[in-house]
Automatic annotation (TrEMBL):
Domain of life the protein comes from: Bacteria
Coiled coil spans: 426-460
Domain Rad50/SbcC-type AAA: 24-255
SUPFAM superfamilies: P-loop containing nucleoside triphosphate hydrolases (SSF52540)
Gene3D superfamilies found in the cross-reference section: P-loop containing nucleotide triphosphate hydrolases
Keywords recorded for this protein, A-Z: Coiled coil
Name used for this protein in its record: AAA family ATPase
Pfam families registered for this protein in UniProt: AAA_23 (PF13476)
Length: 639
């Protein structure tokens, strides 16, 4: 399996800089006093790998002063993945990463969005041969990213001591749910779980596609309910039968039309046709009368509304003039003479004319500037409402005018036909031909409607076919998901057993009174002494041994865990120095004779001399308050 190795950590800015020594595989220790920069080192590394470090931001109350006050500053991390070297650069505080390899230079976003579908996390997981999986929780889904998995690689100080997983950068019900935590453990340890979670995602996608198709069918039915009712819900087969019948009728009518043209005599007499025409003429006259009456009433209402609008427009114009004039002359004052517009020396409790009047009675006849504006807005709104009403009247008048014109045209046609009939013509071939042509046109209209309905039915049948296929797809996806779940569960049973065995071995040495230690097969959380162990300081060892066990499994088993740990000042969490040093010594028990700790990398930051004597050779840097991690830049200004 792929492993991650950090080769070097650098920080550059206008004021401060830092460049770590070259780090190696195995154990790497940074020792230092509190406040010298141990956590800064871990934070720089975490930030460079895409993490969110709140004290690097200017909008937080707990700022890292050296970094937030610096300019043009960035973090540069040199990493090796499967013998391939990459230099990762991230500016503070930017949400993109620049990656330089021997053959390419790319820039990738930190956060995922509609426009940024491929992120730095996707790139990093791809290099580590870890598939990006989607986790569904209810109607929400969440894509696991590298920082999620890093929660079991980064043993930080901020996370409460009784927790195992590092707190997520953006903590919410989804990112720190039990489902997400289980998925992190399973992806890092269970090789079959990538396929299982992908099968879950495929099943949920199939369900979504099925729901979407169902919605499409329902919307299609809703939009075409009128036409379906008109054609009695017939399918495409029956509609084609109706179409053929109508085509047959047209063929017969066309034959009949030819026979009329060929024959001298007509089947119908002029008297019969005359009666029909007069009856039709009477019906059309009645319709025209009704339309004209309706139009007259609407025109009357239109005129009334139009007059009202004109009056309101005049009022608005007047108000605008008053407001504009006031901007220049300041008219809106009860002490202004209405004749010359100059200030009047009005005595209290008296009108400008001199008569006695209370100020309350006097000022009620004057509007303030604000009141004038409110009145103007109200009047303008009235104009908009009246315009809408006038537009409606205009549409109704046009509609009725078109109807009147249409029926008056028909009346003229019938009047001409009646005129011909009353002249005593016995044969009315032309009129009979017109009736046949009208019938053919009517049938052609029905044929056009049926052909359109056939298209609708064919589309409906296509949608129904797709809905059925999506149903089959859902069933297949569920079957595959169930199979992958069984396969993954069997694999995880072995992982839980191996993890528990190594965890017990480490915990029994880290805690003198630890009799049993294992992880639950439900949520993979540790259970010490059957769940009865209560000593607070035990939480330090409980969490640290959990991380070391994961690292051990990555060495001896083929799991996805990238053989990397970042452990930041664990002795600050409430464990005494002797017990902490004893716990640190257990790092030597990781791996086996074929797979030593040097197959991976553990980076530890700790206090001065707070490590086993045997680990002194692993110290890559010592810092204190006089020699802090970040060094102030010195500039040569010349002699």
């Amino acid at each position: 399996m792929s492993n991650l190795l950090v080769k070097q950590v650098k920080y550059f800015g206008e004021k401060y800089s830092y460049s770590s020594p070259i780090l190696t595989s195995g154990i790497n220790i940074l020792e230092g006093e509190n406040g010298a920069g141990k956590t800064t080192f871990s934070s720089l590394l975490y930030f460079g790998l895409g993490g969110n470090v709140k004290w690097f931001r200017e909008d937080t109350s707990e700022k890292h002063i050296e970094i937030t006050s610096d300019k043009s500053n960035y973090v540069e991390i040199t990493i090796i993945i499967d013998d391939h070297l990459y230099i990762v650069t991230r500016y503070i505080y930017k949400f993109e990463v620049n990656i330089v390899s021997p053959t390419d230079v790319i820039t990738l976003p930190i956060n995922r969005s509609i426009n940024n579908t491929f992120t730095f996390s996707d790139w990093l997981l791809g290099k580590l041969n870890i598939t990006v999986v989607e986790i569904y929780q209810g109607s929400e889904f969440y894509k696991l990213n590298f920082l999620d998995l890093f929660r079991l690689m980064y043993h930080d100080q901020i996370t409460p001591v009784d927790k195992i997983y590092k707190r997520p950068d953006n903590e919410n019900y989804m990112s720190d749910s039990g489902i997400i935590r289980k998925a992190i453990f399973e992806i890092l340890t269970g090789n079959s779980f990538e396929e299982y979670y992908n099968s879950i995602a495929n099943y949920r996608k199939a369900l979504d596609e099925q729901a979407t198709m169902k919605s499409l069918v329902q919307n299609f039915e809703y939009l075409n309910v009128d036409s379906s009712t008109l054609f009695e819900g017939k399918n495409s087969y029956n509609l084609n039968l109706d179409l053929n019948e109508l085509l047959s009728q047209i063929e017969k009518l066309e034959t009949y039309r030819e026979s009329i043209n060929d024959n001298v005599t007509s089947i119908k007499t002029s008297t019969e046709v005359l009666s029909q025409k007069r009856q039709k003429f009477s019906e059309y006259e009645e319709k025209v009368f009704g339309f004209k009456k309706d139009k007259s009433n609407i025109v009357l209402e239109y005129s009334k509304v139009k007059r009202v609008r004109e009056n309101v427009v005049l009022e608005v114009t007047h108000l605008k003039k008053i407001i504009i004039t006031n901007e220049n002359l300041n008219l809106f004052s009860p002490d202004t003479c209405p004749i010359c517009l100059k200030n009047a020396n009005r005595e209290p409790e008296r009108c400008i004319c001199g008569n006695e009047v209370t100020d309350e009675q006097y000022q009620k006849f004057f509007y303030t500037k604000e009141e004038y504006f409110n009145i103007l807005k109200s009047k303008q709104k009235n104009i908009e409402t009246l315009d809408i009403a006038l537009k409606g009247y205009e549409d109704d008048i046009k509609y009725l005018s078109d109807k009147i014109s249409l029926f008056e045209h028909k009346l003229e046609e019938i009047r001409g036909e009646i005129s011909q009939l009353t002249k005593g013509r016995r044969v009315i071939k032309n009129i009979e031909l017109k009736e046949v042509n009208d019938k053919i046109l009517e049938l052609e209209k029905k044929i056009s409607q049926i052909r359109q309905q056939i298209k609708i039915e064919l589309k409906r049948e296509e949608l129904e076919s797709k809905r059925t296929s999506f149903g089959v797809k859902v069933e297949d996806a569920k079957r595959i998901m169930d199979e992958k779940k069984i396969e993954a569960s069997k694999s995880m049973d072995d992982i839980v057993k191996s993890f528990s065995n190594k965890y017990l071995s480490l915990m029994s040495k880290a805690l003198h009174d630890c009799n049993s230690a294992r992880i639950s097969s439900d949520d993979y959380m540790p259970i010490i002494n059957g769940g009865t162990y209560k000593e607070a300081s035990s939480n330090v060892s409980k969490r640290l041994m959990y991380y070391l066990t994961l690292f051990h499994l990555s060495l001896v088993d083929k799991i996805k865990f990238p053989k990397f740990l970042l452990i930041d000042t664990p002795e600050n969490m409430g464990i005494d120095n002797d017990n902490f040093i004893s716990a640190m010594l257990l790092i030597n028990e990781l791996g086996d004779e074929r797979n030593s700790i040097n197959k991976g990398q553990i980076i530890v930051t700790t206090g001065l001399n707070k490590y086993p004597d045997q680990f002194k050779e692993y110290i890559f840097q010592t810092i204190d308050k006089k020699n802090k991690l970040l060094i102030k830049n010195a500039f040569d200004i010349g002699a």
